[in-house]
Amino acid sequence: MSAPDIEVDYDSVDSILEVIGRCLLVDRKLNQRKPWDGFVIVSGYEQGHSAHQAWRFVGEETLITTVSGVNPAFNCALIARLRELTADPQRGNWQTWIARYDLATDSFDHTFLWPGEDEGYNVLAYDTPMSAIEALNPAHRAD
Question: Which of 20, 37, 77, 91 has a CA positioned 20 to 30 A from the CA of residue 29?
Answer without folding.
Answer: 77
